[in-house]
Amino acid sequence: MELSQLLRERRSVHTFEDRPVSPELVMELLETAIWVPNHRMTQPWRFILTYGEGRRKIAEAVRKIKESKEPDPSKKKEVGQKFYDKIMSIPMILTVLMKEDPSLIVREEDYASTSCVIHNFSLLAWEKGIGLVWETYGWLHESIFRETMGIQPGEKVVGNLHIGYPAKIPPAQPRIPAAHLITVFDQA
Length: 188
Fold this sequence. Notes:
Layout: H1 3-9, H2 23-33, E1 45-51, H3 55-69, H4 76-88, E2 92-99, H5 104-127, E3 131-135, H6 143-149, E4 155-164
Antiparallel strand pairs: 1-2, 2-4, 3-4
């Protein structure tokens, strides 16, 4: 597939078939995805790959978080179970982390590079028929989740990637043409 076609056809996938994704394939794709521009070559990323029964770690943590935040005591268990089931329906989750440099400039460069890793991974996965969605929900920053997943102080969760074979591919969302968003200076 041509790169331009891959860029235009990739979609964020929210529903997945009930079939596993090979962790070896994900590792192979990550080995290519990390080849991104990274000023100072800090290579700040780290990954936590969760699948199979391992998903219960995330699902239980999210259940606790959601139950603790539900104001109606009669709905706590229902809300917790809903989120537990949602996590367990995702074939694989890749938690993407980055070291937070004390320098704001380096930290911003590192965030941009880590985002490029995620984008590269999404394109490589799509090329293999695997879909994903990059999630940045608030509970990624909760201490229960961080402790459960072994996320260290000084590490930022850039996102959770929900990975699987698409059960449904959403239609393309319109984009504003770049020609409408560019300012050109061609004279002094």
